[in-house]
Design a protein that fits this description.
eight-stranded mixed beta sheet; globular; D-Amino Acid Oxidase, Chain A, domain 2; about 35% helix; FAD/NAD(P)-binding domain; 2 domains
């Protein structure tokens, strides 16, 4: 199959948002192609997924494959200062679990499913530029450096941190409230926490599903610990100034990362007999940003290409799936009724920005700020289970009292389902 010169819809980027958008459009009989600059499977961080993702897995037709191929997680446990708290998804009425996934396998599964559902998938093509308008043209570059043009009626930018539209139109801006450095790596033989805050050996995962473990670092930093099938993803999110001051005392990035992990209460104990594998420490800085232009004549922007906040509450993949599905809905309406394109884009922007602003309020460190009208309206669309899970997660840290206060009030306080633990238990 050769790269088309013309297509109804071009999706740029093969992560969860792109695969969701492309598959949803193909299932409606629309001619859609998806390009990605990399070849899948490819490594991506962000392995924890909330149970609200299942509605999108059902739409994509991948629920059975996801359930079969990845680790089920029962909930989460958070150590935030002196407070130790746990949430269990079953307490919110969820009948299906959260998941811990190897993102290379997970993203590949979604992309291959897109191809099976009729999407033309082309890997090794990087989108370089576009001409906006009612019939946009996207310039792509193949691995040999050859430029080609693809004409389309609409394109969807799901290029993630590359942010094709944001960079070309000059609207990609860093978020000053989230000046953090993220460091992460993968470990073999780490212990993990199960229900009740019980530490277990890695081999017990099939019998005792894991919890995602989060602990506070200093004032506003935090760490994650996510057990998967063979390894555990461990990461640190550290304020930039703290990182600059502390790193100078260590001979290498690996030395700093391992030292900080092992010095972190509970995390260090889980890693006592573990060793890092798969190439050492990864790093990303200034990862929080927004984009001013998330729609325009001929294009929509979804997923991380539209902006990224902070992964502290595992909302990234669900948000990407939501955004991809919303972009597919809007694109289908624009194609069917071009005269109403501007109104459809307005609905798309309002919904996407509201969900993003809610995520911002949930993760915002150290700033008291009312949720915007758009965020509150977005929250109103949540199911009761999603609302209670959001309230409960927000109550587990001091980062997100904005959500409890502005999007919940008395109702939010009544809907909190967390369990406070006196201690974490080690055999």
């Amino acid at each position: 199959m050769s790269l088309p010169q013309k297509v109804d819809v071009l999706v740029i980027g093969g992560g969860p948002a792109g695969s969701m958008a492309a598959t949803a459009l193909a299932q409606k009989g629309i001619d859609v192609a998806l390009i990605d600059k990399q070849h899948h499977p490819r490594e991506t961080v962000g392995e924890s997924i909330l149970p609200s993702a299942w509605k999108y897995f059902d739409l994509l037709g991948v629920s059975e494959a996801v359930a079969k191929n990845f680790v089920r997680k029962a909930g989460g446990v958070v150590v935030w200062g002196d407070q130790i708290s746990e949430i269990a998804f079953k307490d919110f009425g969820y009948t299906r679990p959260g998941m811990h996934v190897e993102r290379d396998e997970f993203d590949d599964l979604l992309l291959r499913n897109a191809a099976a559902k009729g999407v033309g998938v082309f890997e090794g093509y990087r989108a370089e530029a576009f001409t906006p308008g009612d019939n946009p043209v996207v310039t792509v570059v193949d691995e040999a450096g050859q430029r080609r043009e693809i004409a389309c009626r609409q394109f969807i930018d799901t290029t993630g941190q590359a942010a094709l539209v944001g960079r070309q139109l000059g609207g990609r801006r860093l978020n000053a409230d989230f000046r953090f450095v993220a460091l992460w790596g993968y470990f073999e033989n780490s212990r993990y926490f199960s229900a009740g805050g019980v530490a277990r050996d890695f081999g017990e995962i099939p019998q005792h599903p894991p919890l995602t473990f989060v602990t506070r670092l200093g004032g506003w930093g935090w760490s994650w610990h996510i057990p998967m099938k063979k390894v555990t993803s461990v990461g640190l999110v550290i304020p930039v100034e703290d990182y600059k001051r502390e790193f100078a005392e260590h001979p290498s990035l690996d030395a700093y990362f391992l030292s900080r992990c092992r010095a972190t209460p509970h995390l260090g104990r889980l890693l006592a007999n573990a060793h890092m594998v798969n190439g050492g420490t990864r790093m990303m800085r200034d990862f929080s940003y927004g984009c001013d232009h998330i729609s325009g004549p001929g294009f929509l922007v979804a997923g991380d290409a539209a902006g990224f906040i902070d992964p502290i509450f595992s909302i990234g993949v669900v948000f990407a799936l939501y955004a991809g599905n919303l972009a597919a809905w809007a694109t289908q309406r624009i194609l069917a009724n071009p005269a109403q394109a501007a109104n459809t884009r307005l609905v798309f922007e309002t919904q996407l920005k509201g969900r993003a602003e809610l995520a911002y309020a949930l993760a915002l460190p150290g700033v008291e700020r009312d949720a915007t009208t758009a965020a509150r309206q977005s929250f109103d669309y949540f199911s009761q289970a999603e609302k209670e899970l959001t309230w409960s997660a927000a109550s587990m840290t001091t980062r997100s009292q904005n959500v409890v206060r502005a999007a919940g009030g008395a109702e939010g306080a009544a809907g909190i389902r967390r369990r406070d633990l006196a201690t974490l238990r080690y055999a």
